[in-house]
Amino acid sequence: MSEKKVTLGQAIDQIIDALNSLEPEARLTAVEAACSHLEIKIGSSRMGSPPPATPQPPVLPGTPPAPVNPLSPDMDIRTLKEEKKPKSARQMACIVAYYLLEIAPETERRITVNTQVLEKYFKQAKFKLPRSIGQILPDAKAAGYFEAASGKGEYILNAVGYNLVAHNLPTSKGE
To answer: Does 147 lie in the same domain as 96?
Structure first.
């Protein structure tokens, strides 16, 4: 009997679907058990220990895999915005989350974003603040770019949002 092959994106979606119904602590236990079974070493930085010698963003459930980053590691959010040319606040929210996950200096890196973070980085990027900034992340989640994180008002960029920034922006079309 042969196993059906799945793409990386499908695998990520299956993992997220499987973990969504669990409590945060149970999610962590499930991911750690799966990593142990598959002999995958998880960086100690996500456990609150000092970061590893080579700087790497922490890995948590629902976090897209880190690609080879063609963008400069010292690029600022304004430069990234100008390169990616977002056409909406939802696209810009994805750019902010991607920037904080992949490009930002280590001291600024984070996995989740919230309204306050968006406002800070929208301003830094000189992106026009929308009338209802508090609605951007729920709308971006509804559009399929983010997943809700365990903290209230916190969101994690998912594979769809990640791929939007990494591979599909800029685009001549809208969202």
So the answer is: yes
Coil vs helix vs strand at 7:
coil
Residues 90 and 158 in one domain: yes
Print burial letters for 116-140: b (CB count within 10 Å at least 16), e (below 16).
Answer: ebbbebbeebebeebeeeeebbebb
- 94 and 142 in a single domain? The answer is yes
End-to-end CA separation in angstroms for the chain: 41
What is the total count of domains within the chain?
2
Are both 104 and 153 inside the same structural domain? yes
Spatial separation of the C-alpha atoms in residues 126 and 146, rounded to whole Å: 23
Spell 84-94 as b/e; 16+ CB within 10 A means b.
Answer: bebeebbbbbb
The pLDDT tens digits of the residues spanning 40-88 come to 776 533 444 444 444 445 555 655 554 444 455 568 999 999 999 999 9
